[in-house]
Design goal:
By secondary structure, the protein is α+β, with helices and mostly antiparallel strands. The chain has a single domain (about 1-104), classed as 2-Layer Sandwich (Translation Initiation Factor IF3). The protein is built from 2 helices and 4 strands; from the N terminus they run E-E-H-H-E-E.
Amino acid sequence: MLLSNLETVPGRTVVEFFGLVSGSTVRAKHAGRDIMAGIKNIFGGELIAYTELLKDSRDEAIDRMIRQAQGMGANAIVNIRFSTSSVAQGAAEIYVYGTAVRVQ
C-alpha cells in the first residue's frame, strides 16, 4: 500500500477513486508512566514512554486505515491527515484519514 500526504503519488497516475478511509485508536495513559513522566518533567528530557505510546497508537490507526482501503480494492491512500482529541481524562484518540485510490 502506497501512502502519501500529497494529493497524488509522485510518478504515479490515479486511475480509480474509492473514497474516504480512516482508522483510529483510543489509548489511556499508564499510572507507572505518569510517575516517570512527572520525574522527567522536573529534570527535563524526552518522555520516552509517551513517545512509544504515541508511535504505537499512530501505527495501529494507520494499519486500520490500510485494511479498510485494501477491502475497497485500493493500492494507495493519498492526502493523509492525522487528528488527535481528548476523549476522557487521561485518554486520547488518534484519528488518521485519507482518500483510497488505485494508481498505476
